[in-house]
Write a structure and sequence with these properties.
The chain is 48% helix and 3% strand. It is mainly α.
Length: 368
């Protein structure tokens, strides 16, 4: 009797349950097993609570930004799950570098007014017909050169009635010194010339050749300007590891600048990098080549074979003088190998060395 009264009181307290809960309670009351029903409810609540805690810890660990950055870290290591081992670094990807293709420096559809200059008609024919297959340039340079000459009615910039003008001679001098900045001089030599030093006089007897020299100098000057300002190679075409944007000149503006000055060498020199490290490298390059800014010494001939230690050779004094000028060898009277100053009495007491003999000091300076 007392058991039934307790069950009835519990039923009155739990009247706020849901319909499903009431149905379960009714079933339990009918079976007389309320304690079992209560234990099941407790277990279910505990499972729900554990599930809620687990879900919150996974979704809110570090908040929104924590989950965001955790995703980034997994992506950086190749979406490999934690505990699977460290990811191997990705190998750099290199491209098969291809230089910019060159096109013929001509346009068969070229039109425009031609001035009365004696060479203008020849310049126009050179650019329209392009009879010389070696006259090639990048597409952007070709477009700029054609527009440049068309705008000036095909009047030449570098040649006149008496051959090369002063502007052209200064340009040629600048191109011939391309090696000072690590560039190959031969890349800037027009095909009509065999060298920058020896320009034959009879070259100007043929107006067609003169016109080709005119256009060739323009193309080579523009090429030099592009290399001096931004380099010969686009580093971004070497591999994906590079992300460089070297400065690139505008071909049209460069041509206007070259034609608008009597000193094109100054314009070209200003295009080179001015970074202190670059200037040091340039000076070191000149030093390695045995050339200084005021070097006017006699060239040392390679004829005569190898100079052996202790042997005489007429080239030894020239080598000694060159190394002393470059600072690789101490001059006489400065100091000896022990560090004290050599006096005249010391020099008189010592045997005068033969200046044509390759001695130990000179040998060490050459090897340094």
């Amino acid at each position: 009797m007392h058991k039934r009264l307790l069950l009835l009181g519990a039923a009155l307290v739990l009247t706020s349950f849901t319909s499903s809960g009431s149905a379960a309670l009714a079933t339990t009351l009918e079976r007389g097993n309320f304690s079992q029903w209560s234990e099941d409810r407790v277990k279910k609540r505990q499972e729900l609570r554990r599930e809620r805690v687990r879900t919150q810890s996974e979704s809110s660990d570090g908040g929104f930004f924590g989950s965001l950055f955790r995703f980034q870290r997994r992506r950086w290591i190749g979406d490999r799950p934690a505990g699977s081992g460290s990811a191997a670094p990705a190998k750099p990807e290199f491209y098969n570098y291809q230089p910019v293709a060159l096109v013929a420096l001509k346009d068969e559809r070229l039109e425009g007014e031609v001035s009365e200059n004696s060479y203008s008609r020849w310049v126009f024919d050179t650019l329209r017909l392009g009879s010389e297959p070696r006259m090639r340039a990048e597409a952007a340079d070709r477009k700029a050169i054609l527009a440049f000459y068309k705008q000036r009615k095909f009047e030449p910039v570098w040649v006149g009635e008496y051959g090369l003008n002063l502007r052209a001679k200064r340009l040629i001098d600048a191109l011939s010194r391309a090696h000072e900045d690590g560039l190959m001089v031969s890349r800037y030599l027009p095909h009509t010339l065999s060298s920058f030093r020896d320009i034959p006089e009879d070259l100007f007897d043929d107006p067609r050749t003169v016109a080709q020299l005119e256009v060739g100098l323009t193309a080579k000057a523009l090429k030099f300007a592009r290399h001096a300002s931004g380099g010969q190679v686009d580093p971004n075409k070497i591999g994906r590891s590079f992300d460089l944007s070297p400065p690139r000149i505008d071909p049209a503006r460069a041509l206007v600048a070259l034609a608008g000055t009597l000193h094109p060498e100054e314009y070209l020199d200003a295009l080179h990098p001015t970074h202190p490290v670059y200037l040091k490298l340039k000076a070191r390059l000149a030093r390695e080549r045995g050339v200084t800014g005021d070097d006017q010494s006699e060239p040392i001939s390679a004829e005569g074979g190898t100079i052996r230690y202790g042997r005489q050779d007429p080239r030894v004094p020239l080598i000694r003088a060159r190394l002393q000028a470059l600072g690789f060898l101490e001059e006489k009277g400065e100091s000896n190998e022990l560090g004290y100053q050599v006096t005249s009495s010391d020099a008189d007491a010592a045997e005068t060395p033969d200046p044509y003999v390759l001695d130990r000091a000179l040998t060490d300076a050459v090897k340094a």
